[in-house]
Amino acid sequence: MDTFSRLESEVRSYCRGWPVLFDKARGSRVYDSSGRGYLDFFAGAGSLNYGHNNPRLKAALLDYLDGDAIVHSLDAHTVAKRDFLSTFEEVVLKPRGLDYKVQFPGPAGTNAVEAALKLARKVSGRETVINFTNSFHGMTLGALAVTGNSVKRGGAGVPLGHAATMPFDNYMDGRTPDFLWLRSLLEDSGSGLDRPAAVIVETVQGEGGVNVASAGWLRGLADLCREYDLLLIVDDIQMGCGRTGPFFSFEEAGIVPDIVTLSKSISGYGLPMALTLFRRDLDVWEPGEHNGTFRGFNPAFLTATAALDTYWRDENLQNETRAKGDLIAERLDAIAAEHAEAGVTTRGRGMARGLVLPGRGEATRVCAEAFERGLLMETSGPEDEVAKLLPPLTTSVAELEEGLEILAESVRAVVRAPQPA
């Protein structure tokens, strides 16, 4: 590992918890250079919903590259982009009654968020964006301004303004009904809250601790936005593309956001790709007003189309995801019940789940124990208090059972072990 410590920046993080040299991957398993396999409940932080090196997507990609097809195009018209757009409209947008324009803002989720914030401010002529406690929207400056995590915000090095933070659903343990606080600030001319341009929200806060917004809370937020002429932005970067069951995580709430951000698993293969979707009447961009060199990565268009064709022309995947999510929830509830005296609880929706370990450092130690037993997981939450599960949606039931048993063993090893002084 000397090469990495000698040359790579100290900013690296995941490798510190997984100190091996990874070499190959297939489906829900990753292998290190010695050939040892690890069951993957991390899935590229949600970028690999269809697993590693999905054979159908890989075959399409290899054929594409072998034919000397376009790889880089900025925003020029290409066959791969045309096929993605037409398939996305046919398979995702039209069946859901969504008349969105599609913007390719750059390769990463934070690019999609920056485009959404910029567009909302341009359309409304206002600057302030409402975000929520424990939110995470990216690491560029605009996205950081609407992110709650103090450690990530502290890395900006400059003031982060033009945003106002409100309580996420159940942040006040149910003591503040609906949107009483936000509504009162909007109504009170003495509140000090500038008239917002938009509200940005995650339906499930992945990095923030797998905090789930109820359908009623999301509907109330959408109603409030309409009442006060605020654009509603749903950040579906980690929870979209089927992570909670439906293609979009907001579908179960029955809301239609004005703007939606997608990235992570939209390419289907872990290739960089991001989308900003918005109502047709909001498309007020001037040509080239928001651009980027790598917003035309055609291999990602190709694998994204293959993923839509393979998994979203029927409801099989979303039904399987719901069933697997119920299985994960049942097993996590059993783990929590076994350690109820230690205050262990569970959270989540679909195949985005978390085990909350309130003891200081316990979730980190659980993930370390899981790694030693052959399971890859990460922590989340403001104090890294949640052991987070994001297995590929294609993970088999047998693999889920295997990983959840490893997790149960890891929790027993940590919660019942003597705590360090």
Overview in brief:
GO terms for molecular function: diaminobutyrate-2-oxoglutarate transaminase activity; diaminobutyrate-pyruvate transaminase activity; pyridoxal phosphate binding. Pathway: Amine and polyamine biosynthesis; ectoine biosynthesis; L-ectoine from L-aspartate 4-semialdehyde: step 1/3. The protein is of the alpha/beta class and 421 residues long.
Q: Structurally, how many domains make up the residues?
A: 2
Low-confidence runs of at least 5 consecutive residues: none
Fourth CATH level, the homologous superfamily of the largest domain: Type I PLP-dependent aspartate aminotransferase-like (Major domain)
Under the CATH scheme, which class of the largest domain? Answer: Alpha Beta
Question: What CATH architecture label of the largest domain applies?
Answer: 3-Layer(aba) Sandwich
The largest β sheet comes out as: 7 strands, mixed
| CA(first)-CA(last) distance | 30 Å
Strand content: 15-25%
CATH topology of the largest domain, which one? Answer: Aspartate Aminotransferase, domain 2
Pathway: Amine and polyamine biosynthesis; ectoine biosynthesis; L-ectoine from L-aspartate 4-semialdehyde: step 1/3
GO biological process, one term: ectoine biosynthetic process
Pfam families: Aminotran_3
GO molecular function: diaminobutyrate-2-oxoglutarate transaminase activity; diaminobutyrate-pyruvate transaminase activity; pyridoxal phosphate binding
